[in-house]
Amino acid sequence: MWRNLIVLLLALLSLPTFSNEAIKLTKTQLAPEIDGILDDIVWQKAEKFTGFKSFIPDFGKEMPQKTESWISYDEENLYFAFRCYDDEPDKIIATIRNRDDIGKEDWVCVNLDSHNDQQAISAFYVNPFGIQADARFAAGQEDESADFVWYSAGQIDEQGYTIEIRIPLKSLRFSDHDPVEMGIILERKIARQSIQGMYPEMDPDQGYAFLNQMMVISMTGVKHYKLFEAIPALTYSNRNSRDAGAWGDAKHTSDPSLTLKYGITSDLILDATLNPDYSQVEADAGQIDVNLRYNVFYPEKRPFFLEGKEKFAVAATRTFDLDPMYLMVNTRTIVNPLTGLKFSGKVNETNDFTILYAMDELAGDQDIWQKNYQHVPVVRFKRSFSGDSYIGALYSGGEAKENFNRMYGADGQIRLNKSTLLEFNGFRSHTSGESDIEVGHAASVYLNKDTRNLQYGLIFKDLSEDFHANTAFIRRTGITQIGGRFLPKFYSDSKVFKRFDVELFGMGAYDKIYSMWEHFSFASVTAYLGGTSMLLMKYYNTSEIYLGERFKTGGFHALFATQIGDWFSGSVVNRYNNAIYYSSDPYAGLLNRFSLSLKFQPITKFNIDLSFLYYNFREADTKDMVYTYPIERLKLTYQFNKFLFVRGVLEYNGYRKNLLTDFLVSFNYIPGTVFYLGYGSLFESIDLAGERMFNPDQAYDMERGLFLKLSYLFRR
Q1: Quick check: 631 pLDDT over 80?
Q2: pTM for the full model?
Q3: Which of 61, 474, 594, 664 qualifies as a cystine partner to 678, CB 3.0-4.6 A?
């Protein structure tokens, strides 16, 4: 039987590929000046691409504004230029703002599959002022935490705007052969009309399967380097706290760190770090942290762990809102690493692997010679097949003196045809318990189809109660889920209604701990209005098992988002539903969730971000208020240029009655070369021995701190 299954799997993996004949680029001997002005001679000889067609909100439409683009290269760099025509240049939406914050503006994007293996994309976004954003995409998941070293500039003129980009080949991982082939898609967004277009044109029967629709470029005479990078960093902090009304002695800490990168080839990279730094210059935005069934998720921000993070993406995870398998490798679980090593790359055209090791200091008050550590190894292997199909394997563990956790398994995705993808995974875990070893399993299958007019998916999940993975973010175990989604799309030529998405989702879940069934289903309508607005209405019919009881958890959800020019954008979300008070004695309640986000840009360099998050919970029978939890946040940023900004944050937590302040001066020339100077404080009222220490109507600063960070990227 197993032999027949293997034969069938290999047959599926040999389905047709979607590659194109490579376009041979013209090599330049004169590098363009990256100033956003297209007067360099290189652009007269470079390959030119035009005829961009839309894919959002609809496929294959003529773009309302013409776009021209050029590509060239030399031994060490890729070069791109864009001429984005606009007959109303005063309506171009663009601001001078912080890196990675241009998603709602006009932009162009270079999407690169640097190995031309249809497995991953590196995306380079630039707005009309040359402000950058970048991301990685792999295994159906986009990671916006990527930070590449590259260069860009932009200019707005009477015809629209122009962009120039230089991407050093040292910032990419690519084939160690000659010629070098890469997949590429060029993209443009016209923000005031919410239209996105690309070259080459996307096939509506393939939906948003970018990896299978890229044109291929070919380059000869590229320099295959042995990269060396070093980022020494120093973080100094001075922190103080108040105890019994008096300030204690300030705590001064100097925290040096070092991150190294060595490119054995342009394909194989060795990373090492000592005392890796968070690079976290702003406190995580407040989240509701009461009455939770599972932990709050916080994203990774440390440069060492961000490098190659997309390689740990696992198929058939994060498939729907309540998917229990969120991340199989969440490096934020490595809390206080002393050192780390990572070896990653491709050994040939189809085999890719990554090995990560970290030594994590466990909490405790031991002296420096008696500290407890957990050794965390993670091994990832992927073998690519035709199109974006692959088979992968993953091992992760946590080895400490008195306990261990080991998880291993496989995942993959198979392109059944140009619009249908089969994703799957299966894992097993071994964890040392109090008296014996607990063995658990987790498995998923996800079949999804994506075309212009229809998306649908079928989902199966099964997690045993004893499945544990120290490096993962798992929301729930001891559950089996089976369900599906059906999403037809309807298009209109109306100036008011551009597109309607109608989604139906249904899932049954079996709680294996209590041998009881629950369900999760909803119906929603999303309307894309005019150029820049969206309205979502959703009705839930759901139930949930908790501690052997079945509770109704259905309700209503509404979202409205809009943008007005380059000076305002905002969204409002409200959800009202039946809910559970999670405790040892749970009971039914009514939960009201409201959030408001507003962004103002009164002048090009100054932006104001306002957010308000409010939850309240009432007991279902008596309607008595159990808790209210408001969080108000104000962020003011003045961006002097693309490198330098000053920012202030005020965040008031009405549940915990405290006020967080955060002030920052930031100079970020390129990722790795940074200067940060920050000051923060925490104002609150507290009780000591049951007595109010201060007037409850006032807040006093209880903690305050100053920090300074310097780091510099050496590269050769």
Answers
A1: yes
A2: 0.89
A3: 664
